[in-house]
Amino acid sequence: MTGLDPLTWAVILLLLGCALVVLEVFIPSGGILGLLSGFAVLASIVFAFRSDTTSGLLFILCALIAVPAMLGLAFKVWPYTPMGRAFLGELPSEEEVKPVDQRKELVGRMGIAKSLMLPSGVVLVDGKRLDAISQGDAIEAGESIVVAEVRGNRVVVRRADPDEASQVPQDQRDVLSRSLDEFGLEEIDDPEH
């Protein structure tokens, strides 16, 4: 009975080492399978050198390429396996992980300029104070504005047309320009008269 030559043993042990690396990813063994994988890969290199030096160097190169490639492939596939899904939970979709800029929803909303805008200033939109930039000319404090666009971290506003200005919610207008009736207050009589 003839035994296997050293090169055949080297191939078998390298394949066994790669398989054990993959199993280490899928089966938590506390590093035991990883250690056995390392021994199998080293033994394959030793057997390859017993065949000849060129084969030994070739197996070192194969081990340096195959083991990380198999490990990377295992980690790429692992989240889609039953154990990976149980451990990690359901993977979020691409739409769920996209950052949401809530300021984009402000486009078209009405508000009031709270400061003189030359071209930047403060506006009040939906009860929130925002730093904004006027789209062109200066806007006086207290004037009605419309959010024209959101560019990066800048909110760009324009002066509201007269018919748009009448649509600005009452709660955003300047407090001092409101009548007492809007606040539900009555005029106070002078007690001396």
UniProtKB/TrEMBL annotation:
What's a Pfam family this protein contains? Answer: NfeD_membrane
Where mainly found?
membrane
GO CC annotation:
membrane
What Gene3D superfamilies has UniProt attached to this entry?
A: Nucleic acid-binding proteins
Q: Where is this region: Disordered?
A: 161-193
Domain NfeD-like C-terminal positions: 104-159
Q: Where is the composition biased (Acidic residues)?
A: 183-193
Superkingdom, taxonomy of origin: Bacteria
Ranges for domain NfeD integral membrane:
8-72
The membrane-spanning stretches of this chain are 6-27, 32-50, 56-75
Q: Which UniProt keywords apply?
A: Membrane, Transmembrane, Transmembrane helix
Membrane topology of this protein: Multi-pass membrane protein
Location in the cell? Membrane
Q: Does the keyword RNA-binding apply?
A: no
Protein name per UniProt: Uncharacterized protein
